[in-house]
Amino acid sequence: MILKNNIWKIFYLLSIVATLFLVTLLYFNYKGIKERYTTQVEYYTQIVAQSIEADFMQKDMLLSVVGESIFKECKSSSKAKTEELFSLILKHNPSLVTLGLADKNGQVLVSSSNVEKKDINLMTNDKTSYDFKRSLSSDHMVVSRTYYFDAINEWIIPLRKAIRDDDGNILGVVIAGIKNSKNSNYLDAFELSKNKIVVILKDLDDKGNLYKLYYSQQNSSQIDLYEKPIKKELLSHVKEIFYSKYKYSIKELRKRPKTISLFINSDQIGDNIVGLNYVKKYKLWISVGGSVQEIKEEFSREVILYITMFILTFIIFFILFKSVAVSEKRKDLELIRQVQHDTLTNLPNRIYMYENIQNYRKLYNNKYFVLYLDLDNFKNINDKFGHIAGDDILIEVANRLNMFFTKDEMIIRQGGDEFIVFANNINRKEIELKIQDLINYISKVYHIGKRDFRIGVSIGIAECPKDAKNIEELLSLADTAMYQAKKIKNSYSFFSEEMRSLNAFRTEVEHELRGAIEARELWMAYQPQINSDETLYGVEALVRWQNKKLGFVAPDKFIYVAEESGLMKELGEFIIQTSLREIKMVQEELSLTFNLSINISVVQLMEADFLPNLLKAIALENFNRSSLTLEITESLSIESLDDVLPILYDIQEHDIKISLDDFGTGYSSLSILRELPIDELKIDKSFIDKILYDESEKNLVDSIINIGKNFHMKTLAEGVESIEQIDELKRSNCDIFQGYYYSKPLSREDLIKFLRKG
Ligand code: C2E
Ligand code: MG
Ligand code: MG
Fold first, then answer.
1. Residue ranges, CATH 3.20.20.450, the chain
2. Which one is the CATH code of 513-756: 3.40.190.10, 3.90.1640.10, 3.20.20.450, 3.10.310.50?
């Protein structure tokens, strides 16, 4: 989960960084394109300016040569000859369309033959006088304003060159015209690129006007192009942006010409990048310009390319991150699944149960049965055939449960051989039938490896909402009911109100028992055991509990609680130590040795340090080991026979006797007698009760006594209440008698009195 969130955080961060990077990249890209265009335009301007200057210088020279040859060398030559010379020169210089001579007063004297003969004076004409005058004072050729020369029906750029004698006196002026019509091959040659506009401007005249001499894209009328000066606003606008870029004035530039470039955006010329160069000698501005639109177009192409690449990369990264996130999520889900499931059976576990119970409750409309299943004698299989066989059976049981219940019924492995099922609410009759089917199904034979196993199941059932609503309570009630079913085995039991009060009592007993030893509520009573010759054999120690809240509680009612709640070890040690100490004291007081029988719970017996602790207690009291018997209840000892057997042998080896208590009430009584190291059989009171009037019970007791004799065991009749019973039992050769006939269990003081009486 954490990683998943982080992955998207990294992704967002990466996206922001990439976007910033893209914007920066585009910014520098735009700057680069702009710089490239600027350099290009400056370069073009430089080249155009240089070539125009070179060409004009050539023309300057030509006019000088022509003028000098006419005025100086051939003073006497005729008009006709001059015209002939002009024709020849024009033929060889196709860029020139007219040639002529004027005197210093501006009167045209001769002109090339293509010019219509009429009286022309350049000094008196408004359009020509300013430049004509300029030519008289200039050493160089003077380039004049483009105008329509009607004598030849052409737009021309006029050239004037004054010719001087050696003293510097003006002899005359050579005049010429460069053809400036649309598609003039000569001028168009300056146009280096189709999308660059070349403009030649004549520097400011006496009226402060700036006129175009040439405009490479002559789309509009030539009158508009050449007759109207450049607008003043445009001029001041250019001045401003020039200054703000170069930090000096145009005037300075005129003095020290160099190629510059400006971005000019105005209504007159649109949005352009313009290169500018001043040709000082001929007072001309050369400008090469390109539209900013071009820069924008190139930039947009780059933008599209970059953004496409960016989006593609973004998509690839997104897919990558998405797949990582998805796989992380899958891992998370798998982890959750693992935590919520049992590894052996793959069934959901308690964690799953608590996480999902609300969903199931909704599904069941809060009406359902909780089944608590516990396999019968599963421990035996584990012990006898190993854990692998046990595991295989558990897996098979889980499979059967999955097959048996629907998807809507939650099956939980509670742990060990216990399972919980939340079953759909059907009526009581149907669930009983269903559970009976389930028991049959679970107890069908299991083929594991080469062996066949049979296993039973005990099921306790609690119903929601009838028995309880709270989940914990329902589980506990079903568990209680399961214990009831366990008494019969391979059966089921519904929770009942009776069990509830029993349960409540049990809970209270457990609670009160915890403090009982410290509160000195427990003590020992001793019941005498008498030999058939009426002498004392010994006593049985019986624990007693008087509680403030519960009153007198019989051992039947609390020993099993102590066993189930882990209190038996402490209680058992109290019983052993107290009995040994008290009986030793009685024996010493009366100088009498007799036997002591102590009841031992199997739970006690299974404690690892049981025997060492017992021996320690015996040594502490200096008790005679051969006068000690441990009573073990038969029904309990069978289930865990394999575990108990070695301990029993160990005990016997230490010279301590073992008695099988309540003999005859268990199941496989006779068969285990051979295996167990037993010194004494205690015939249960339920048999003794009936011997006087029930022949078959009498026979049963007789055969128990005989069996005992055969195995060299002593037999003890428990709960003898009349002399008739004793006489009958004596006739059957019973060895020892214990019961109310002789005495009820007695306190230590009462026991002393009893023994003193003899
Ligand atoms: P148990 O070992 O079979 O003990 C004999 C029970 O029969 C005792 O009941 C005793 O008081 C009773 N009894 C003896 N003679 C007669 C008689 O003539 N008539 C009648 N009606 N009853 C007679 P108690 O003391 O209530 O003990 C019940 C069971 O509790 C015992 O059965 C024993 O299994 C267990 N128990 C008692 N004390 C201890 C103990 O210290 N440790 C352990 N582990 N279990 C004990
Ligand atoms: Mg007993
Ligand atoms: Mg008994």
1. 513-756
2. 3.20.20.450
In the three-class reduction of DSSP (H, G, I as helix; E, B as strand; rest coil), residue 427 is classed as coil
Query: Distance between CA atoms of 192 and 208, rounded to whole angstroms?
Result: 30
Residues above pLDDT 90, as percent of the chain: 68
Q: What is the dihedral of CA 291, 296, 299, 301, to 10 degrees?
A: -100
What's the rounded mean pLDDT across residues 153-179? 91
Q: Which of 413-427, 585-599, 670-684 has the lowest mean pLDDT?
A: 670-684
The yes or no reply on domain 340-495 and CATH 3.30.70.270 is yes
Query: Confidence class of residue 668 from pLDDT cuts 50, 70 and 90?
Result: very low
pLDDT of residue 2: 55
Residue of 298, 279, 299, 297 whose CA lies nearest to 287: 279
From 542, 690, 738, give the residue whose CB has the most ligand 1 atoms within 8 Å, as the site to mutate.
542
Give residue 447's pLDDT: 92
What residue ranges of the chain are covered by domains with CATH 3.30.70.270? 340-495
Question: Quick one: tokens of 700?
Answer: 């049963």
The pTM of the full predicted model, rounded to 2 decimals, is 0.55
The burial of 23, by beta-carbon neighbours within 10 Å (0-12 exposed, 13-18 middle, 19 or more buried), is given as exposed
For helices 292-339 and 2-68, give the axis angle rounded to 10 degrees.
170
Name the residue among 609, 562, 586 with its Cα closest to residue 748: 586
- The alpha carbon dihedral of 597, 603, 605, 607 has a sign of negative
Q: What is the pLDDT of residues 670-719, one digit of tens each?
A: 667 777 899 999 999 999 999 999 999 999 999 999 989 999 999 999 99
Q: Which CATH superfamily is domain 1-336 in?
A: PAS domain (3.30.450.20)
**Token representation of residue 235:** 């001029």
Active site residue 417: yes
Is the separation of the CB atoms in 435 and 425 below 8 Å? no
Beta bridge partners of 371: 421, 461
> For 460, how many CA atoms within 13 A lie in the half-sphere containing its CB?
24
Q: What pLDDT does 306 receive?
A: 93
Q: Which atom of ligand 1 is nearest to the CA of 601?
A: 44
Mean pLDDT of the chain: 90
Exposed, middle or buried by CB within 10 Å (0-12, 13-18, 19+), for 749? Answer: exposed
Q: How far apart are alpha carbons 576 and 228 in whole angstroms?
A: 135
* Per-residue pLDDT, 37: 93
Please report which confidence band the pLDDT of residue 554 belongs to, taking 50, 70 and 90 as the band edges. very high
In the reported structure, the alpha carbon of residue 551 is separated from the centroid of ligand 2 by a whole-number distance in angstroms of 23
User: Ligand 1 pocket: which of 539, 563, 599, 722 to mutate (most atoms <8 Å of CB)?
Assistant: 599
347 in Cβ contact with 398 (< 8 Å): yes
For CATH 3.30.450.20, the residue range(s) in the chain are 1-336
Of 381 and 286, the structure prediction assigns the larger pLDDT to 286
Model confidence at 392: pLDDT above 60: yes
